[in-house]
Design a protein that fits this description.
Largest sheet: 5 strands, mixed
Strand order of the largest sheet: 3-5-4-6-7
Number of strands: 7
CATH architecture of the largest domain: 3-Layer(aba) Sandwich
Distance between the termini: 17 Å
CATH class of the largest domain: Alpha Beta
Order of helices and strands: EHHHHHHEEEHEHHHHEEH
Number of helices: 12
Structural class: alpha+beta
């Protein structure tokens, strides 16, 4: 199976898309600055979520396990059939009985070892993701990397592939954590978070995409292809005349990008770049709003390449991706490791000589409506997220055989 290759789309009606506003919404505890307001309003307007009798929405209140199933089934417009119920704490007289019994018979839920379902218990983030992935027919992506991408998630937990799938497909908002390396698996999922996740999944599926990105509209109007990024004058590794060109947009503070460059990129280099099959191009896409050192690191890498050419650029880039503590001191340390001229490097770094180059790359990423990092283009076909080496090999080998 080829790994995530959706065509990049930019919606012609995106600029006409209504912006959610506190002026046209019924909840007294939401404002124009409320997190996920667009998703909450869309879900409310489509009858999936509602407020409380006092006129509030209570966006930070956790969603219980039964409520989550109801919201998911209502979004899918599933018909609730009469089904057997195996749980000792779910009764036919309860409003949630049909949702729980149908979820069980569809294989979406299993319950607890004591025979209970605990319908009133807050659904935690990984439980919600698992139910959504199973209940909404999302294909699971197995994590072939050596790191989950989150410090609080190991690869041997039962939900590792579900969380990886959610991250790669970009279906979960991350406003609940200031540290993007921490996911908070056991924490209850709030009403606003559930609204955002279900909105993203619905939007992704209605548009026929394999991942969510900003610019998609939930009712899927006719899309117009966005311009594909070009090579520009960015650093490249390999034969410029190679039959395959891979363009990567990346961020030096992105954990997933670091995982790719430490575990998968060396395999790609050995198998395809060093054998003149792939010309590999790197373009900067620093997400500076959440990664404050990403722009500085990108400038530092360009300054390294200024002295030693593209090979030194990639050597320096590899060092940056191996570090979890970026800053000016580490930039000089890596320059020394590669035996760069200290004075020239310092002058380049302090002059912001390459700031416009980094900004141009970021502008190209925005123009192509990229969802985040890392994003790859293999002969123009997009892959969002961290692919396994096997999936990359399949795509490259297929292109070579054409």
């Amino acid at each position: 199976m080829k790994f995530l290759k959706p065509l990049i789309l930019i919606l012609a009606v995106a600029l006409l898309m209504p912006v959610a506003s506190a002026e046209n919404q019924p909840f007294s505890d939401l404002t124009d600055d409320s997190d996920y307001l667009r998703s909450i309003m869309w879900m409310h307007q489509n009858g999936v979520v509602d407020g409380y009798p006092d006129g509030t929405f209570k966006p930070d209140k956790c969603v219980n396990r039964a409520e989550f199933l109801k919201m998911m089934f209502e979004l899918n417009k599933e018909v609730m059939l009469e089904q057997e119920n195996p749980f000792n704490d779910v009764y036919e007289t309860e409003w949630y009985y049909p949702y729980v019994s149908n979820a069980y018979n569809l294989g979406i839920i299993n319950g607890y070892s004591d025979g209970s379902f605990k319908p009133g218990q807050c659904v935690n983030r990984v439980e919600a993701i698992k139910m959504a992935v199973e209940g909404m027919g999302i294909e699971i992506i197995q994590n072939d990397a050596t790191h989950s991408g989150f410090e609080d998630v190991s690869l041997d937990v039962w939900y590792a592939d579900y969380l990886y799938t959610a991250a790669i497909r970009n279906i979960v908002g991350m406003l609940h954590t200031e540290n993007r390396d921490i996911f908070g698996t056991a924490e209850g999922m709030s009403r606003k978070e559930v609204a955002e996740m279900l909105y993203r999944i619905n939007t992704m599926q209605n548009n026929g995409e394999q991942g969510y990105y900003e610019g998609l509209y939930p009712d899927a109007p006719t899309p117009v292809p966005a311009p594909l990024p070009d090579i520009d004058d960015d650093p490249m590794l390999g034969n410029p005349d190679a039959p395959i060109t891979i363009i990567e947009f990346s961020d030096y503070e992105c954990p997933a990008c670091g995982t790719f460059h430490q575990t998968i990129f060396p395999l790609v280099k050995e198998a395809y770049i060093d054998t003149d099959i792939v010309n590999y191009v790197y373009r900067d896409f620093p997400l500076s709003s959440i990664h404050p050192n990403a722009v500085g690191a990108a400038i530092a890498a360009n300054c390294a390449g200024d002295q030693g050419g593209d090979e030194v650029y990639f050597d320096y880039s590899s060092l940056l991706f191996s570090s979890r503590d970026l800053g000016v001191e580490i930039y000089y340390e890596y320059a020394e490791q590669l035996e760069l001229n200290a004075d020239e490097f310092s002058e380049c770094l302090s002059s912001d000589k390459y700031l416009s180059e980094v900004e141009n790359d970021a502008a190209a990423a925005a123009e192509s409506e990229l969802a985040g990092t890392p994003t790859f283009f293999i002969n123009g076909e997009m892959i969002f997220g961290v692919p396994s080496f096997e999936s990359l090999s399949e795509i490259i080998d297929d292109l070579i055989s054409q």
